[in-house]
Amino acid sequence: MPLNVLLADDDPTMRVLLSHVIARAGHTVSAMAADGEAAWQAYVAAPVPMVILDWEMPRLDGLALCRRIRASAHGDVPFILIVTARDSSEDLTEVLDAGADDYMSKPVTPNRLQARLRIAERQIEVAAARRTAEEELRKARYLAGIGETSLALQHEINNPLAALLSHTALIEQNMLTAPETRDALVTIAEQARRIAEVVKRLRQIQNPRSVEYLGSARMIDINPNTPPTPEQTS
């Protein structure tokens, strides 16, 4: 999977070496920077799926830049590799705590960088698949919620709506006496208030829960006074 890579290192020789290995691996260095602030501006202008940062850079070091990227919108997306001459266990802990995905100590060799690039490819593919699955799940839940809300409205509104419409039709067709018409108007007003109350309860729901309706069908419970039970809650 070809990647666009942001490369930041204050050593021009290191930038040439890293960019050459990245290109040989089939990826593209979309931006290079000699300090952390310039790298940040490049990332903001064009976010990329992979960022390679030298730890010690002027203006903004690699770990500070890593934290800034992670704190930005969609900052969890890029794979961040830190390159440094430090190699103690405490340094590795600091790198990971900053939010980096991987760590490579100097001197950098082409083989080691290629191995890191392969690791990055796999992790980026897995992360992209996970985000796609999560988005599909959100869509499925949203659509299921629409269906459950529709079923709840149908369940709560059908009867009063049928009574309202039937009495309205009797009045329109002049099929009622004067007293019957007055009674029908009272019924119409009552059923309209029932429907309005259903809509009001629906609007006031803050933590909707799903309850069983018929068989495997489920609907949103719009009755705020009904306590949930293990059999009712989803």
Short description:
This protein is α/β, with parallel strands linked by helices and 234 residues long. The protein has helices at residues 12-24, 36-45, 62-71, 89-97, 110-172, 178-204, and strands spanning 4-8, 28-33, 50-54, 79-84, 102-105, 210-212, 218-220. The protein is built from 6 helices and 7 strands; from the N terminus they run βαβαβαβαβααββ.
Mean pLDDT: 83
Taken as a percent bin, the fraction of beta residues is 5-15%
Helix percentage:
55-70%
Straight-line N-to-C gap:
40 Å
Work out the count of structural domains.
2
What is the tally of helical segments?
Answer: 6
Order of helices and strands: EHEHEHEHEHHEE
Strand order of the largest sheet: 2-1-3-4-5
Structural class category: alpha/beta
Total beta-strand segments:
7
Radius of gyration: 31 Å
Q: What is the annotated CATH architecture of the largest domain? A: 3-Layer(aba) Sandwich
**Any idea of the CATH class of the largest domain?**
Alpha Beta
The shape, in one word, is: rod-shaped
The CATH topology of the largest domain corresponds to Rossmann fold
The major pleated sheet works out as:
5 strands, parallel
Low-confidence segments, given as residue ranges, are 228-234
Fourth-level CATH superfamily of the largest domain: Response regulator
